[in-house]
Amino acid sequence: MLKTINCKINGRDMELQVDIRESLLDMLRDRLHLTGTKQGCGVGECGACAVLIDGQTLDSCIYMAVWADGKEIVTIEGITNDDGSLSDIQHNFVDKGAIQCGFCTPGFVVSATALLEEKPNPTKAEIRRGLSGNLCRCTGYTKILDAVESTAEQRGNKK
Amino acid sequence: MEHKVIGKSVERWDAIAKVTGRANYTGDIPQKELLYGKICRAKIAHGKVKSMDISEALKVPGVVKILTPDDVPEISFPTAGHPYSLDSRYVDVADRRILTRNVRLYGDEIAAVIADSELAAEIAVSKIKVEYEEYEFYLSTEEALKEGAVEIHEGSKNIIADTINGTGDLEAGFKDADFIVEDVCATPIVQHCQMENQIAYAYKDVDNRWVCVSSTQIPHICRRILGQAFGMPWGKFRVIKPFIGGGFGNKQDITIEPLAVAMSMAVGGKAVMLDLHREEVFAWTRVRHAISYKIKMGFTKDGLITAADIDAISNNGAYASHGHSVVAKGGGITTALYKIPNFRYRSRTVYTNTAAAGAMRGYGTPQIIYALETFMNKVSMQTGIDQFELREKNFTKVNDENPLLHMTQHSMSLRECFEKGKEVFKWDEKRKFIDENKGGDYVKGLGIAAFAYTSGAYPKTMEIGGCRLILNQDGSIKMMVGATEIGQGSDAVFSQMVADTVGVPYEWIIADAVTDTDIAPFDTGAYASRQTFVSGMAVKKAALELKGKILEASYHFSKRTNKVTVDDMDIVDGNIIQKHDGQIIEGLGDLALNTYYNMHEGHCLTADVSNRCTKNAYPYGITMAEVEVDKKTGKVEVLSILNVHDSGRIINPILAEGQVEGGMAQGLGYGLAEELKYDAKTGKPLNNNLLDYKMPTSMDVPDLSVAFVEIDDPVGPYGNKSLGEPPLCSPAPALRNAIIDALGIYVKDIPVTPQKIIEALSENREV
Amino acid sequence: MYQINGYFEASTIKEAVDYLKENENSQIIAGGSDVLIKTRERKSGYVDKDLVGIMRITELHGISYDESGNILIGSTATFTEVEKNEIILKNISSLSTAVGSIGGPQIRNIGTIGGNVANGATSADSASSLFAMDAIILIEGPAGKREIPIKEFYLGPGKVALNRDELMTHIKIEKKNFEGYKGHYIKFSQRKAMDIATLGCSIMVKMDGNKIGDLKIAYGVAGPTPIRATEAELMAKGMEITTENLDKIGEKCLENASARDSWRASKAFRQQLIRELPKRAIKIALGGGE
Ligand code: FES
Ligand code: FES
Predict the structure, then answer these.
(1) Of A75, B263, B269, C34, which one is least surrounded by beta carbons within 10 A?
(2) What's the confidence (pLDDT) of residue B678?
(3) Which fold does the domain A2-79 belong to in CATH?
(4) Which residue in B has a C-alpha nearest to residue C266's C-alpha?
(5) Are strands C154-156 and C159-160 parallel, antiparallel or unpaired?
(6) How much is the pLDDT for B767?
(7) Is B181 exposed, middle or buried (0-12, 13-18, 19+ CB in 10 A)?
(8) Ligand 1 neighbourhood includes A152 CB (under 6 angstroms)
(9) For the CA atoms of A27, A31, A33, A35, what is the dihedral angle to 10 degrees?
(10) Residue C86 within a domain
(11) Mean pLDDT confidence for B271-293
């Protein structure tokens, strides 16, 4: 069964024909080739597939593609600036050594983006909680937390 | 020697691609046409497939083909990511078929569907009807070894190997002892949980060979095993490894690649993708061996070890994979850490009907270190000998020869690690505070553990690394290595080595985005924490060779105008200079242009090195942990935890810290939470998903502290020793020792869960 | 891709109910964090369904007071909405704590309180708090509207008193059940995020001078459905808050509980938590915060 949906993806208005059986993750990766969003579990337990939907971080693997109708979606590709330059969060991930295998990284950047939007000056505990829907097996989280903390500081909002 | 790039936290070359989502992992590479495979798995834990009815499955729209054991080669092959052995005594056990009629664990691979969508393949799998003949199944080594147990592999008696290793005279050693301590402990089955699941696709290439693109740690070994699995010349296969989302040893084994190729072969060489679900990765790729230990040691009254007798039984699961080498490694690790004049290490590796155990970060070392370091804790508590002193007294020393590995170690800084640890951790302050504030429902405790490891697998297996360097037209250097970047940052570290040795800026080194067996020099891959050490030697040799050629060429091209000799030339920051006054002769770019385009004398400069490594160097380290235990619920809060490592010189501090932090978090999970469980009634895995398997989240990992004692190792190519696996070897015993310190009661096995603590408290078990 | 047959996006309660009634194969889907996972697992009853999306039905959104000052929570209010809502924080903060303990941010942004209750799991973090508040479930179906106390709504593990063609519209917390009460929820789980409760305990306490005027203790995972420790509640009335009394209350709670051995935790361990958690929850509630 196909359905037509209209949504904004990374700033572009789109009209798409989607199969109702598709997850948003399927739609992004297979239909739009936005492969920066990863799949680590398919059931909302790892956060590798996180994207922003109307500003909130959500796991696209358990989100039906048809639900994207009328929504504004931002993926890791849309967090990166149009000229290819990095957002401040991305920059700090690189700078603080928060990237190892990198498979979890897009999801973390997405969740961190939502977190700092909502809480510009989070405590360390709030950062931990804000990123607790994203698993990383490489880093022990330490440098990821550093990266987010530094971004908040640099934005001049840190308490 | 002064280093310009080594020792600096340079940025890894792939960081920006990864943080923007541009880095292509296996599942991200666009295909013109792609079919999907799905494995049909047995629904019993032990038995035989009597019959299989695929007629309904074939009717599912989109299904292209269904493979059964009849459709794949009747060839048994090994899967371990070990180098091939020319000595028949040491070849890996070949007990695996691409698909099997003999079911050896719940979920064993009995058929496979190829379809035009994943969903169609899944639906078809659900429609395959199977009749089984069922046997008794065994989840533990005791059950598998009991009288009359059904053999999981014919003729094996369920034992893969049973070996005894040692030194000295055990009996005499115990006679010399003033006291003897005994203990038992067991470690759980745990899983790697690398974030990218196993994924591979295969197709027939333009030259009619078979290409397998796979998320593997061992491309060159993968190619060889494909050759073995199909009984075809190895050169008929080509393996390509794109970016890989972690491995930790789980991808140091060949799990899905042969089936991916078999599926492509079945459909005329079209590309077929096999992308495992997380649940499959947990239960049906590889896990860490659960090992149980019986330890007996004799000591003089001053606490010197006179003898040690260790009996280890390892649960290898349903297939041999890395087999006996994992538990066997424990013997040499024991004697790398402690000086034991009289030692016996018996190890047995046993088949059971659980997941095949293979390589996992630490390769048997987290298990033996858990056993040894909780044992030392017990000795200290029973005798009153200070736990630092007891260990320090017995540590090996520089220039000791390891009696089991027959290797002499040239650097050993565990005492310095303790010293530094005490200072950074504020051990004495913490100790004092805890001793003065006892009582209540929330109790605190401190624990320590030390470990030894190895750098690479020599002398257990041969060690070889390869590196090819090409001086590009602009003076930049193309670096090709067979060593595998799997997230740990090896490419960055190799680039640093090349830059530092040749004398150019780090940014001038160009690494490969993929490892391709058709292109990359031979190297056995990412395992055994070998790459910086073993592959690093090849990189260093190649860099020195290229540098020599550059200086020769520069001398050659400029000798008419310049009086300087090669001996007086050097390369600094990308310029060729005269050593005596530092004056620049020419830029490397200018020289490179000459080498490429000089009509009469041009020739491109390259270095291509394959290097056999016949050395090893033991890295060491310690963990210190402080916990708070809630006596009413058993909850453990890790208040602080520190790892101090002696890994020789650190090539890239920020990457090194990252390795340590990641390993510590894994060690934390190992000690306190993680365990793959099975249903005793059916043999089915119970918690093979990321919700029920308790890998730590960002809220469960406390702030992690890391320190290094940096003393150059004389053997390491740049004074370095290994670091990849070591960090997870000691956190678990340190945490368990801290819990015991807090509670004053005895908790034996990891993971030390709240329930186990409450049970121990209610039974008031004495240490 | 999910093996589903069809999808219908309802925009009013009536549309949803009509569709559910007409199509025998239909099934409600809210945030999807439960249904889609079961579909992927190929759990029976969850494949080849015609799903009815209810997230865009505005009547089911929001959290408000009704004319009598009761709190009405729309069934599709997400955990994040409930957690941060002013009305909830002011009157029944334990529910905020409870839903705040679920999963991680992504799950809280999509999972709904209605879904949490409707799937009938004893481990549902919101359920024990709703039990402690004697919440009322508002339902609409072909036969019109009905209300049912949460205790009667839970029939057994995974079973609730909701017909296939009915829709849970709201959860009502009556003023008399929160006014003057202080509450707290404690989730005991192995991890601090992304976990299901080994045991959940929610209490509501009203003091009468220095004595307990009324106490409600509810548990998740202490039985096949969430339960109330009615014996302990009865005994507690009129007691002062002392360590001995709290111990007595904790012990008494075991009388209503029927914890079981499972691979996740032993009965004995759960019983220890059943004893311990209400004492802590009461102390925290009365201490006015953690
Ligand atoms: S892939 Fe979506 S949460 Fe893991
Ligand atoms: S960097 Fe590998 S999982 Fe996070």
Answers:
(1) B269
(2) 98
(3) Ubiquitin-like (UB roll) (3.10.20)
(4) B755
(5) antiparallel
(6) 67
(7) middle
(8) no
(9) 30
(10) yes
(11) 98
Verify whether the Cβ–Cβ distance C106 to A47 is below 8 Å: yes
CA distance linking residue B190 with residue B204, whole number of Å: 37
DSSP assignment string, B24-55: -BGGGS--SS-EEEEEEE-SSSSEEEEEEE-H
Give the pLDDT confidence score for residue A131 in this predicted structure.
98
Q: Is C234 on the interface with B (CB under 8 A)?
A: no
How does residue B765 score in pLDDT terms, banded at 50, 70 and 90? confident
Q: Which amino acid is at A147?
A: A
Residue B159 lies in a domain: no
Nearest-Cα distance to chain A for B57, in Å, is 20
In this structure, what token pair is assigned to residue B621? 């380290």
Q: At what angle do helices C267-287 and C243-253 cross, to 10 degrees?
A: 140
Return the residue whose CA atom lies nearest to atom 4 of ligand 2.
Answer: A136
Helix axis angle for B754-763 and C267-287, nearest 10°, is 100
Name the DSSP letter for residue B92.
Answer: P
Residue B247 placed within a domain: no
**C195 in contact with B, Cβ within 8 Å:** yes
Interchain contact, A140 vs B661, CB within 8 Å: yes
Q: List the single residue in A34, A45, A144 with the smallest CB-CB distance to B689.
A: A45
Residues of chain C with pLDDT under 70: 288-290
State if residue B195 touches ligand 2 by the CB under 6 angstroms criterion. Answer: yes
**C103 CA to centre of own chain:** 14
Q: Give the per-residue SS3 of chain A.
A: CEEEEEEEECCEEEEEEEECCCEHHHHHHHHCCCCCCCCCCCCCCCCCCEEEECCEEEEHHHCEHHHHCCCEEECHHHHCCCCCCCCHHHHHHHHCCCCCCCCCHHHHHHHHHHHHHHCCCCCHHHHHHHCCCCCCCCCCCHHHHHHHHHHHHHCCCCC
Same domain, B625 and B497: no
For ligand 2, say whether the CB of A137 is within 6 Å of any of its atoms.
yes
Of the residues A105, A131, A144, which should be mutated to test ligand 2's pocket, given the most ligand atoms within 8 Å of the CB? A105
Edge-to-edge strand order for the sheet containing C227-228? C182-188, C199-208, C211-220, C227-228
Neighbours of C (≥3 Cβ pairs closer than 8 A)? A, B
pTM over 0.90, yes/no: yes
Contact C265 B633 (CB under 8 A): no
Our answer on whether the CB atom of A46 is closer than 6 Å to any ligand 1 atom is: yes
Which residue range forms the structural domain that includes residue C233?
179-285
Closest-CA residue of C relative to B669 is C191
CATH of the domain at C207: 3.30.390.50
C239, C211 contact by CB (below 8 A): yes
Domain check: are B754 and B625 in the same one? yes
User: Which CATH number fits the domain A88-154, given the four candidates 1.10.10.10, 1.10.1060.10, 1.10.357.140, 1.10.150.120?
Assistant: 1.10.150.120
User: Residues of C numbered 46-105 whose beta carbons fall under 8 angstroms of chain B's beta carbons: which are they?
Assistant: 104
- pLDDT at res. A156: 85
**Dist. CA B444–CA A42, nearest whole Å:** 40
